[in-house]
Amino acid sequence: MFGDFEILKKCKTTNARVSRFTLNNNTLDLPIFMPVGTYGAIKGVPVEDLKEQMILSNTYHLRNLKKNVKNFMKWKGSMLTDSGGFQIGSLPNVEVTEEGVLFDKKLFTPEESMDIQMGLGADIIMQLDEVVNPNDPIDKIEVACKRSIRWLDRCIKQVYGSEDEENPKRVKENLPQIKLEARNQILFPIVTGGLDDSLRQYSIDEIVKRNPKGLAIGGLSGGEAKSEFARTVLYCTTHLPDSIPRYVMGVGYPEDIVICSALGTDMSDCVYPTRTARFGRMFSDTGDIYITNKLKGETKKRQDCDCFTCKNYSLAYLSMLKGTTNFCILTTIHNMHYMRNLTRRIREAILKDEYPEFIKNYMNTRYEKVPEWIVDVLKKVNVEV
Known about the structure:
CATH class of the largest domain: Alpha Beta
GO biological process, one term: tRNA modification
InterPro entries: TGT-like_sf, tRNA_ribo_trans-like
Low-confidence stretches: 167-178
Helix content: 25-40%
GO molecular function, one term: tRNA-guanosine(34) queuine transglycosylase activity
Keywords: Zinc
Structural class: alpha/beta
CATH superfamily of the largest domain: Queuine tRNA-ribosyltransferase-like
Protein name: Queuine tRNA-ribosyltransferase catalytic subunit 1
Number of domains: 2
Protein backbone atom coordinates (compact mmCIF):
# COMPACT_ATOMS: atom_id res chain seq x y z
CA MET A 1 0.00 0.00 0.00
CA PHE A 2 1.22 3.50 -0.84
CA GLY A 3 3.31 4.94 2.01
CA ASP A 4 3.87 1.61 3.78
CA PHE A 5 7.26 1.14 5.44
CA GLU A 6 8.38 -2.35 6.46
CA ILE A 7 11.62 -3.29 8.23
CA LEU A 8 12.81 -6.65 6.90
CA LYS A 9 15.96 -7.09 8.98
CA LYS A 10 17.87 -5.26 11.68
CA CYS A 11 21.61 -5.67 12.17
CA LYS A 12 22.28 -7.34 15.53
CA THR A 13 25.42 -5.26 16.12
CA THR A 14 24.94 -1.84 14.49
CA ASN A 15 21.85 0.33 13.91
CA ALA A 16 21.66 -0.73 10.25
CA ARG A 17 18.46 -2.13 8.80
CA VAL A 18 17.02 -3.35 5.52
CA SER A 19 13.54 -2.13 4.73
CA ARG A 20 10.96 -1.54 2.02
CA PHE A 21 9.17 1.73 1.35
CA THR A 22 6.19 1.64 -1.01
CA LEU A 23 5.64 4.64 -3.25
CA ASN A 24 3.61 5.17 -6.40
CA ASN A 25 4.01 2.04 -8.58
CA ASN A 26 7.41 1.38 -7.02
CA THR A 27 8.75 -0.23 -3.86
CA LEU A 28 12.16 0.99 -2.72
CA ASP A 29 14.69 -1.40 -1.21
CA LEU A 30 16.51 0.51 1.53
CA PRO A 31 19.27 1.55 2.23
CA ILE A 32 19.37 3.46 -1.04
CA PHE A 33 21.49 6.19 -2.61
CA MET A 34 19.80 8.77 -4.86
CA PRO A 35 21.88 10.46 -7.58
CA VAL A 36 21.01 14.09 -8.25
CA GLY A 37 19.45 15.18 -11.52
CA THR A 38 19.44 18.93 -10.98
CA TYR A 39 17.33 19.83 -14.01
CA GLY A 40 15.44 16.55 -14.22
CA ALA A 41 18.36 14.70 -15.81
CA ILE A 42 21.57 12.98 -14.74
CA LYS A 43 24.34 14.58 -16.79
CA GLY A 44 25.69 12.13 -19.33
CA VAL A 45 23.16 9.33 -18.75
CA PRO A 46 19.96 9.06 -20.83
CA VAL A 47 16.81 8.41 -18.81
CA GLU A 48 16.27 5.01 -20.45
CA ASP A 49 19.71 3.91 -19.20
CA LEU A 50 19.08 4.87 -15.57
CA LYS A 51 18.91 1.78 -13.35
CA GLU A 52 18.36 3.59 -10.07
CA GLN A 53 15.24 3.05 -7.98
CA MET A 54 15.00 6.75 -7.20
CA ILE A 55 16.59 10.03 -8.25
CA LEU A 56 16.50 13.56 -6.82
CA SER A 57 15.71 16.77 -8.66
CA ASN A 58 16.01 20.39 -7.55
CA THR A 59 12.90 22.48 -7.01
CA TYR A 60 14.74 25.79 -7.38
CA HIS A 61 16.09 24.92 -10.82
CA LEU A 62 12.75 23.47 -11.98
CA ARG A 63 10.54 26.16 -10.44
CA ASN A 64 9.41 27.53 -13.81
CA LEU A 65 8.74 24.16 -15.47
CA LYS A 66 5.06 23.98 -14.47
CA LYS A 67 4.88 20.33 -15.55
CA ASN A 68 5.01 16.90 -13.98
CA VAL A 69 8.74 16.38 -14.35
CA LYS A 70 8.56 12.57 -14.16
CA ASN A 71 6.18 12.47 -17.11
CA PHE A 72 8.13 15.17 -18.94
CA MET A 73 11.39 13.21 -18.74
CA LYS A 74 9.61 9.83 -19.12
CA TRP A 75 11.05 8.56 -15.83
CA LYS A 76 9.26 5.46 -14.54
CA GLY A 77 11.17 5.22 -11.26
CA SER A 78 10.63 7.22 -8.09
CA MET A 79 11.66 10.83 -7.53
CA LEU A 80 12.33 13.10 -4.56
CA THR A 81 12.45 16.86 -4.92
CA ASP A 82 14.26 19.08 -2.46
CA SER A 83 12.57 22.24 -1.21
CA GLY A 84 14.79 24.72 -3.04
CA GLY A 85 16.01 26.26 0.21
CA PHE A 86 19.59 25.04 -0.04
CA GLN A 87 20.10 26.39 -3.55
CA ILE A 88 18.50 29.74 -2.72
CA GLY A 89 20.52 29.99 0.48
CA SER A 90 23.69 29.62 -1.59
CA LEU A 91 22.88 32.70 -3.69
CA PRO A 92 24.38 36.12 -2.92
CA ASN A 93 22.34 38.82 -1.15
CA VAL A 94 19.76 36.45 0.31
CA GLU A 95 17.59 37.63 3.21
CA VAL A 96 15.60 35.24 5.40
CA THR A 97 12.44 36.59 7.02
CA GLU A 98 9.55 34.93 8.82
CA GLU A 99 7.61 35.05 5.56
CA GLY A 100 10.24 33.20 3.55
CA VAL A 101 13.51 33.65 1.69
CA LEU A 102 14.03 36.90 -0.22
CA PHE A 103 16.35 36.64 -3.22
CA ASP A 104 16.66 38.66 -6.40
CA LYS A 105 13.73 40.82 -5.19
CA LYS A 106 11.51 37.71 -5.05
CA LEU A 107 10.05 36.07 -1.96
CA PHE A 108 10.18 32.26 -1.87
CA THR A 109 7.78 30.95 0.76
CA PRO A 110 7.02 27.51 2.25
CA GLU A 111 3.68 27.61 0.45
CA GLU A 112 5.32 28.28 -2.91
CA SER A 113 7.80 25.45 -2.36
CA MET A 114 4.90 23.07 -1.74
CA ASP A 115 2.96 24.25 -4.79
CA ILE A 116 5.98 23.85 -7.07
CA GLN A 117 6.86 20.40 -5.73
CA MET A 118 3.28 19.14 -5.95
CA GLY A 119 3.18 20.36 -9.54
CA LEU A 120 6.46 18.62 -10.36
CA GLY A 121 4.85 15.34 -9.31
CA ALA A 122 7.67 13.94 -7.17
CA ASP A 123 6.86 10.93 -4.98
CA ILE A 124 8.51 12.56 -1.96
CA ILE A 125 8.51 16.32 -1.43
CA MET A 126 10.53 18.18 1.20
CA GLN A 127 9.49 20.94 3.55
CA LEU A 128 11.18 24.32 3.18
CA ASP A 129 13.59 24.79 6.08
CA GLU A 130 15.92 27.65 6.93
CA VAL A 131 19.38 26.52 5.88
CA VAL A 132 22.28 27.62 8.08
CA ASN A 133 25.82 26.34 8.40
CA PRO A 134 26.27 23.85 11.27
CA ASN A 135 29.31 25.87 12.37
CA ASP A 136 27.28 29.09 12.71
CA PRO A 137 26.73 30.66 16.17
CA ILE A 138 24.27 28.69 18.28
CA ASP A 139 21.78 31.55 18.55
CA LYS A 140 21.51 31.73 14.74
CA ILE A 141 21.05 27.96 14.54
CA GLU A 142 18.34 28.08 17.22
CA VAL A 143 16.38 30.78 15.37
CA ALA A 144 16.59 28.75 12.14
CA CYS A 145 15.62 25.51 13.88
CA LYS A 146 12.49 26.97 15.46
CA ARG A 147 11.55 28.88 12.32
CA SER A 148 11.85 25.65 10.33
CA ILE A 149 9.18 24.07 12.54
CA ARG A 150 6.88 27.04 11.95
CA TRP A 151 7.55 26.74 8.24
CA LEU A 152 6.78 23.02 8.46
CA ASP A 153 3.33 23.88 9.78
CA ARG A 154 2.81 26.22 6.86
CA CYS A 155 3.89 23.45 4.46
CA ILE A 156 1.47 21.05 6.14
CA LYS A 157 -1.37 23.53 5.92
CA GLN A 158 -0.63 24.21 2.26
CA VAL A 159 -0.76 20.56 1.22
CA TYR A 160 -3.39 19.27 3.66
CA GLY A 161 -4.98 22.28 5.27
CA SER A 162 -7.93 22.97 2.97
CA GLU A 163 -9.54 19.75 4.17
CA ASP A 164 -9.16 20.80 7.82
CA GLU A 165 -10.17 24.44 8.03
CA GLU A 166 -12.81 23.51 10.61
CA ASN A 167 -10.22 21.76 12.77
CA PRO A 168 -7.00 23.83 13.02
CA LYS A 169 -5.66 21.56 15.78
CA ARG A 170 -5.56 18.66 13.35
CA VAL A 171 -3.54 20.69 10.88
CA LYS A 172 -1.05 21.81 13.51
CA GLU A 173 -0.58 18.60 15.47
CA ASN A 174 -0.99 15.87 12.90
CA LEU A 175 0.07 15.09 9.36
CA PRO A 176 -3.00 13.51 7.74
CA GLN A 177 -2.20 11.85 4.43
CA ILE A 178 -5.36 13.00 2.62
CA LYS A 179 -4.87 15.66 -0.02
CA LEU A 180 -1.27 14.81 -0.85
CA GLU A 181 -1.76 11.04 -0.90
CA ALA A 182 -4.51 11.51 -3.46
CA ARG A 183 -1.66 12.75 -5.66
CA ASN A 184 0.57 9.80 -4.60
CA GLN A 185 3.00 12.15 -2.84
CA ILE A 186 4.46 12.20 0.68
CA LEU A 187 5.85 15.19 2.59
CA PHE A 188 9.11 14.72 4.53
CA PRO A 189 9.89 17.18 7.35
CA ILE A 190 13.57 17.99 8.03
CA VAL A 191 15.28 17.59 11.40
CA THR A 192 17.52 20.63 11.98
CA GLY A 193 19.53 22.04 14.88
CA GLY A 194 23.13 22.07 13.71
CA LEU A 195 25.49 20.16 15.98
CA ASP A 196 23.55 20.91 19.16
CA ASP A 197 21.84 17.89 20.74
CA SER A 198 19.19 19.93 22.55
CA LEU A 199 18.11 21.68 19.35
CA ARG A 200 18.13 18.40 17.45
CA GLN A 201 15.91 16.93 20.16
CA TYR A 202 13.56 19.90 19.97
CA SER A 203 13.29 19.46 16.20
CA ILE A 204 12.74 15.70 16.51
CA ASP A 205 10.05 16.10 19.18
CA GLU A 206 8.15 18.71 17.19
CA ILE A 207 8.31 16.73 13.95
CA VAL A 208 7.27 13.44 15.55
CA LYS A 209 4.20 15.20 17.02
CA ARG A 210 3.07 15.78 13.45
CA ASN A 211 3.16 12.06 12.63
CA PRO A 212 5.14 12.07 9.35
CA LYS A 213 5.50 9.04 7.09
CA GLY A 214 9.21 9.73 6.70
CA LEU A 215 11.71 12.46 7.50
CA ALA A 216 15.14 13.81 6.71
CA ILE A 217 18.18 14.63 8.82
CA GLY A 218 19.34 17.98 7.45
CA GLY A 219 21.60 20.85 8.32
CA LEU A 220 24.83 18.86 7.96
CA SER A 221 27.55 18.35 5.32
CA GLY A 222 28.34 22.05 5.60
CA GLY A 223 32.01 21.90 6.52
CA GLU A 224 31.70 20.51 10.04
CA ALA A 225 34.24 17.95 11.26
CA LYS A 226 33.41 14.43 10.11
CA SER A 227 33.39 13.26 13.71
CA GLU A 228 30.75 15.87 14.59
CA PHE A 229 28.73 14.99 11.52
CA ALA A 230 28.66 11.30 12.46
CA ARG A 231 27.93 12.02 16.13
CA THR A 232 24.94 14.17 15.18
CA VAL A 233 23.55 11.60 12.74
CA LEU A 234 23.84 8.93 15.44
CA TYR A 235 22.09 11.17 17.95
CA CYS A 236 19.21 11.67 15.53
CA THR A 237 18.78 8.02 14.55
CA THR A 238 18.92 6.97 18.20
CA HIS A 239 16.08 9.35 19.10
CA LEU A 240 13.92 8.94 15.99
CA PRO A 241 11.11 6.37 15.72
CA ASP A 242 11.96 3.08 14.02
CA SER A 243 8.71 3.03 12.13
CA ILE A 244 9.52 5.52 9.34
CA PRO A 245 12.34 5.92 6.79
CA ARG A 246 15.24 8.24 7.66
CA TYR A 247 16.89 10.23 4.89
CA VAL A 248 20.27 11.85 5.58
CA MET A 249 20.73 14.75 3.19
CA GLY A 250 23.86 15.56 1.19
CA VAL A 251 25.83 12.36 1.83
CA GLY A 252 27.60 10.74 -1.12
CA TYR A 253 31.12 9.62 -0.26
CA PRO A 254 31.13 5.80 -0.48
CA GLU A 255 32.59 5.34 3.01
CA ASP A 256 29.99 7.76 4.40
CA ILE A 257 27.20 5.64 2.93
CA VAL A 258 28.60 2.57 4.70
CA ILE A 259 28.91 4.50 7.97
CA CYS A 260 25.51 6.21 7.82
CA SER A 261 23.85 2.86 7.13
CA ALA A 262 25.54 1.52 10.27
CA LEU A 263 24.26 4.56 12.19
CA GLY A 264 20.69 3.76 11.14
CA THR A 265 19.85 5.88 8.08
CA ASP A 266 17.96 4.51 5.08
CA MET A 267 18.32 7.05 2.27
CA SER A 268 20.95 9.52 1.08
CA ASP A 269 21.70 11.79 -1.87
CA CYS A 270 24.59 13.86 -3.19
CA VAL A 271 25.99 15.34 -6.39
CA TYR A 272 29.44 14.03 -5.44
CA PRO A 273 29.52 10.67 -7.31
CA THR A 274 28.48 12.19 -10.65
CA ARG A 275 30.24 15.54 -10.31
CA THR A 276 33.54 14.01 -9.23
CA ALA A 277 33.29 11.48 -12.07
CA ARG A 278 33.37 14.30 -14.60
CA PHE A 279 36.66 15.45 -13.10
CA GLY A 280 38.19 12.00 -13.44
CA ARG A 281 37.59 10.30 -10.11
CA MET A 282 36.31 6.73 -10.34
CA PHE A 283 35.19 4.88 -7.22
CA SER A 284 36.80 1.61 -6.19
CA ASP A 285 36.85 -0.44 -2.99
CA THR A 286 40.63 -0.32 -3.02
CA GLY A 287 40.81 3.46 -3.16
CA ASP A 288 39.48 5.90 -5.73
CA ILE A 289 41.09 5.91 -9.17
CA TYR A 290 42.25 9.27 -10.52
CA ILE A 291 42.21 9.38 -14.30
CA THR A 292 45.14 11.57 -15.27
CA ASN A 293 47.66 11.60 -18.07
CA LYS A 294 49.93 9.55 -15.83
CA LEU A 295 48.22 6.41 -14.57
CA LYS A 296 51.13 5.04 -12.57
CA GLY A 297 49.74 2.96 -9.71
CA GLU A 298 46.10 3.61 -10.59
CA THR A 299 45.61 0.40 -12.59
CA LYS A 300 46.30 -1.62 -9.43
CA LYS A 301 43.17 -0.13 -7.85
CA ARG A 302 40.87 -1.30 -10.63
CA GLN A 303 38.67 -4.18 -9.57
CA ASP A 304 36.50 -6.60 -11.45
CA CYS A 305 33.61 -4.29 -12.29
CA ASP A 306 30.81 -5.28 -14.63
CA CYS A 307 29.63 -1.78 -15.51
CA PHE A 308 29.51 -0.80 -19.20
CA THR A 309 32.62 1.37 -18.88
CA CYS A 310 34.85 -1.18 -17.18
CA LYS A 311 33.75 -4.05 -19.42
CA ASN A 312 34.62 -2.13 -22.57
CA TYR A 313 37.37 0.42 -21.94
CA SER A 314 40.82 0.55 -20.37
CA LEU A 315 42.01 3.27 -18.02
CA ALA A 316 44.52 4.30 -20.68
CA TYR A 317 41.68 4.88 -23.14
CA LEU A 318 39.73 6.87 -20.57
CA SER A 319 42.83 8.94 -19.87
CA MET A 320 43.09 9.76 -23.56
CA LEU A 321 39.45 10.92 -23.54
CA LYS A 322 39.81 13.20 -20.52
CA GLY A 323 38.22 16.59 -21.10
CA THR A 324 35.71 15.27 -23.61
CA THR A 325 31.98 14.65 -23.27
CA ASN A 326 32.53 10.94 -23.82
CA PHE A 327 34.90 10.83 -20.85
CA CYS A 328 32.27 12.40 -18.56
CA ILE A 329 29.63 9.94 -19.74
CA LEU A 330 31.80 6.86 -19.19
CA THR A 331 33.09 7.84 -15.75
CA THR A 332 29.59 8.83 -14.61
CA ILE A 333 28.23 5.45 -15.70
CA HIS A 334 30.91 3.77 -13.58
CA ASN A 335 30.35 5.80 -10.41
CA MET A 336 26.58 5.40 -10.56
CA HIS A 337 27.00 1.66 -11.01
CA TYR A 338 29.41 1.59 -8.06
CA MET A 339 26.94 3.36 -5.76
CA ARG A 340 24.06 1.09 -6.80
CA ASN A 341 26.24 -1.94 -6.24
CA LEU A 342 27.50 -0.63 -2.89
CA THR A 343 24.01 -0.18 -1.46
CA ARG A 344 23.01 -3.60 -2.80
CA ARG A 345 26.01 -5.15 -1.02
CA ILE A 346 25.10 -3.29 2.17
CA ARG A 347 21.56 -4.69 2.05
CA GLU A 348 22.80 -8.21 1.37
CA ALA A 349 25.32 -8.06 4.23
CA ILE A 350 22.63 -6.91 6.68
CA LEU A 351 20.24 -9.64 5.55
CA LYS A 352 22.97 -12.27 6.07
CA ASP A 353 23.92 -10.91 9.53
CA GLU A 354 27.35 -10.04 8.11
CA TYR A 355 27.30 -6.25 8.15
CA PRO A 356 29.98 -5.72 10.85
CA GLU A 357 32.34 -7.94 8.85
CA PHE A 358 31.43 -6.10 5.66
CA ILE A 359 32.27 -2.76 7.30
CA LYS A 360 35.64 -4.03 8.57
CA ASN A 361 36.60 -5.47 5.19
CA TYR A 362 35.45 -2.38 3.33
CA MET A 363 37.34 0.12 5.47
CA ASN A 364 40.52 -1.94 5.68
CA THR A 365 40.49 -2.46 1.91
CA ARG A 366 39.77 1.18 1.13
CA TYR A 367 42.40 2.63 3.48
CA GLU A 368 45.97 1.70 4.32
CA LYS A 369 45.23 3.33 7.69
CA VAL A 370 41.57 3.87 8.55
CA PRO A 371 40.98 7.53 9.56
CA GLU A 372 40.62 8.04 13.29
CA TRP A 373 37.15 9.57 13.01
CA ILE A 374 35.89 6.43 11.28
CA VAL A 375 37.45 4.20 13.93
CA ASP A 376 35.83 6.27 16.68
CA VAL A 377 32.34 6.46 15.22
CA LEU A 378 32.22 2.76 14.36
CA LYS A 379 33.12 1.93 17.95
CA LYS A 380 29.87 3.65 18.94
CA VAL A 381 27.97 1.02 16.96
CA ASN A 382 30.12 -1.84 18.26
CA VAL A 383 32.39 -2.30 15.23
CA GLU A 384 36.19 -2.38 15.62
CA VAL A 385 38.23 -1.61 12.50
